[in-house]
Design goal:
470 residues, alpha+beta, seven-stranded antiparallel beta sheet, five-stranded antiparallel beta sheet, 18 strands, 37% helix
Length: 470
Amino acid sequence: MFDLSKISEVLPADRILTGDADIAEHSYDAWPVAIKWRQQGKQPCKPEAVVKVKSTEEVSALLAACNAQGIAVTPWGLGSSVVGSPLTENGGVVIDMSEMTAQIKLDEVNLLVTIEAGKRGDLLEAELNKRGYTLNHSPQSLDRSTVGGWIATRATGQFSSLYGGIEDHVIAIKIVLPDGQIVQTKQTPRAAIGLDTKEIFIGSEGTLGIVTEITTKIFPLKTYRLFETLEFDNVTSGLSVLRTITQASIKPFLVRFYDVDESRHAMKDSKINKCVMFLGFEGVPAMADAEYQTVIDICIEYGGRTIGPDGAEAWMDRRYDFSAIEKILAEPGGVAETIEISDFWSGIEGTYTALKEALKPFADEVLCHFSHVYAQGTSLYVILIGQAEDAAAAEKRILQIWDTAMTICLERGIATSHHHGVGLARKKFVSADQDSAMIVNRAIKLALDPHNIMNPGKLGFTDNTIKSEK
């Protein structure tokens, strides 16, 4: 147990929490394995203290104190990570950012908003909507995740095919380095002055410092939208459509394509026996109409059949609902996991087939869809649902799913994560995924965090690998 007195010198005692309930609350996130730990009474990721901070200056003072003592520090937003990103394997302090929620500035001329990192996504979106704006960043976890969490995990949203991921939205960030120094990156539309410093921290999962403020783009709310639902006989045809429209620089704001198994769930109809695609277009009516008709023509060329807007519109109404997976996981033997990867167009169908077949032994259903598309390729989102004997067996099954899926991704040379990040779920696969790039990653880690206090063990930054660079 470390000495809390140094922390007590820089923060009020009532915000340094060591009670069993507070520790337990910060020992589990939304990773299915962590849910199974809780059901078994296991607590392998247990901090020694939880500290609630309210300002950048408090974060700075706290990190300086922890760095001086070599205390492990793990940032915490709302604990909604589905891969174990905010869970500590090294005890130490969890820094709870959930009370840093201020909207600092709304810039309606340049279409920017600056907020503190603990701001919950749906609350920020609601505030902006009242003023006629939107983030156009809409992860399924919008109502349970923070802006800082999006930065930490390089998140993306359901409309990324038009608006991009969080890295395309962020203009500037304020970061507290492990030794307590505060860094503010410059706000400009674009610059060519050396490195883009903020990019070092996007996706770093709290291993290099703590982001405390973010300036991000906003957009005027669109009032004109068109939706369509289409059927396809097979995955090949639908993927051909997605590739054709993205490579023609046509960007529907909504693009989701489901294989037959998941189409039944997406349409809430067990009789569905076709692959289903949801499309949405928005903006200036003449442009949205033209995009709609052009894309529908392409779909028909590849054998697609329009069946009306109802399917896509119904999905829009329930797009933040994660309750089906939560209900399964709430059962001790319930097995449910989501794994998202990405691949080039040339390989994605082979990857889909390989993952689908390899994962079948571990679940009653293996559901797949493609929901973030680019000119060069697409994401693939795999959902697994099943039942095991008890929580221990379910935990073992979920870990087997991860080992199997990540091994296939590494063998095929594709991205082992598209938008959920790394956390504990992918921790042991990072070095193989990054290959020689780990030389640079470790050098940055060593330079910024030589004592390895920041979320140690994550992103392949183990004590041994850091020390080997010294």
